[in-house]
Write a structure and sequence with these properties.
The chain is mainly α. It contains 15 helices and no strands. It folds into 2 domains: 178 residues, Growth Hormone, Chain: A (Up-down Bundle), CATH 1.20.1250.20; 204 residues, Growth Hormone, Chain: A. α10 packs antiparallel against α13 and α14 packs antiparallel against α15. The radius of gyration is 21 Å and the shape is globular.
Length: 415
């Protein structure tokens, strides 16, 4: 058709992915490593007779270090090599696994959970950084990595549940440690991106372990890049919809009479179609402007979940909404990672992943309580409308930034 924008040519396979199997295995076992422990801690707390508030603190405690140190750890990956820093945190979690059954008291267990949760979060950040470096920002390969990660998140809770039911606490955490061993093997077989790009070696100093204000300032300064600012805002909005799903959405579905199994099916559909969407991300990058695609996909995702009260409780419509949202989120996620990776140099990938994780955690912490306040004050239906309106309004400045970035790219192309 005359005037159509031609599709972008398919990118050649990056040199670092000449043998992609190890890094895809890192994706599968990396994200599953975190989910394995997420699943176990509530069961362990219940077996010890802990209260709901104590279990809630244990679950939330895993995020504490990630909120404050994700950027710092990302900088360390850029400085000393992604794989070696990632291995340190994988090994830390392996060493801490057998300590869990030895601590049946709340406060020591909470401290252990905070430390182990940080190690698991940073290990997964390292896996994301490594694929961004090895794939050179190509969404097709990042999408495949994300697809395997979804397999890990599906398998880990099932395996953890079986281990708990048939063996109890010791076998469960032993399998968690074994999972880390397999992840170690995959990481050791994957190439170190720093060596491939011949980055000059940096001498380690103990003071490098301490967070540095200048590192945080330089990371947040990346937001001055339009592509980074747009993608970070989209990440916040995307995580916000997931916060809605994990809080008010469940409460609403329960109140209209859905049982746990039918609610679980809706959640599973989001995961399944997100995984399938990951595989389409590379093609979506070549079909049009990635930033516009990410923004439009996010806007539709917001609308799809926020119209939940108006679907009349019809299960087929709820299923269709989750299929659409899962697919869109699956397509958008690798595109975001790709845009970010290409917007910065090869030695800032850890920093941008750290910044991305910080935005994720901020949205995950902020949205559920806000939704709860809205629901208590105005009811569930009104809270869906209010949060939908607020998130839609936040899309307006993101749209402006996207247009400014497109104009800047057009001007650079014409020069």
């Amino acid at each position: 058709m005359r005037g159509d924008t031609p599709a972008r040519p398919r990118a050649e396979r990056p040199v670092g992915l000449s043998n992609p199997a190890p890094i895809y295995a890192v994706g599968l076992f990396g994200m599953g490593y975190t989910d394995f422990y997420i699943f176990l801690i509530p069961l362990y707390g219940l077996s010890l007779g802990m209260s709901a508030s104590q279990i809630g603190m244990l679950v939330g405690g895993r995020s504490l270090l990630a909120v404050f140190l994700s950027i710092h750890i990302g900088v360390l990956m850029d400085r000393f090599g992604t794989r070696r820093v990632t291995l340190f945190f994988v090994w830390s979690a392996i060493a801490l696994a057998p300590v869990f059954p030895l601590l049946p008291w709340f406060w020591p267990l909470l401290i252990l959970q905070i430390i182990n949760g940080g190690a698991l979060s940073f290990a997964w950040s390292g896996a994301q950084t490594l694929i961004a470096q090895l794939a050179e920002g190509e969404a097709e390969y990042i999408g495949r990595f994300s697809f395997f990660a979804r397999i890990g998140t599906t398998a880990a809770p099932i395996l953890a549940g079986l281990a708990w039911d048939f063996g109890g606490v010791w076998p469960s955490y032993a399998i968690g440690a074994l999972w880390g061993v397999v992840l170690t093997i995959a990481l050791l077989r994957a190439p170190e991106a720093r060596e491939r790009t011949q980055m000059p070696s940096t001498v380690f100093r103990w003071r490098d372990l301490l967070p540095n204000f200048s590192d945080y300032a330089s990371c947040f300064a990346l937001m001055a890049i339009p592509a980074i600012a747009t993608s970070m805002a989209i990440i916040f909005l995307r995580t916000a919809t997931m916060g809605v799903q994990s809080s008010l959405y469940i409460v609403y579905l329960h109140n209209i009479g859905l049982i746990g199994t039918t609610i679980g099916v809706l959640f599973a559909l989001v995961e399944i179609f997100s995984g399938l969407g990951h595989l389409f991300a590379g093609r979506a990058m070549r079909l049009g402007d990635p930033q516009k695609t990410m923004l439009s996909g996010t806007v539709i995702s917001i609308a799809v979940i926020c119209v939940t009260p108006f679907l009349g409780g019809i299960y087929a419509l709820l299923v269709a909404a989750n299929v659409v949202r899962g697919w869109l989120q699956g397509v958008v996620q690798p595109m975001m990672f790709s845009v970010q990776a290409k917007a910065v140099g090869p030695y800032r990938q850890g920093a941008v992943v750290g910044l991305r994780q910080t935005m994720n955690w901020l949205a995950a912490i902020a949205i559920p309580p806000i939704m709860g306040v809205f629901a208590d004050a105005w009811g569930a239906t009104a809270s869906f409308v209010i949060i939908g309106a607020v998130l839609s309004l936040l899309c307006v400045p993101v749209t402006w930034i996207t247009r400014q970035g497109a104009q800047l790219r057009a001007e650079q192309a014409s020069d």
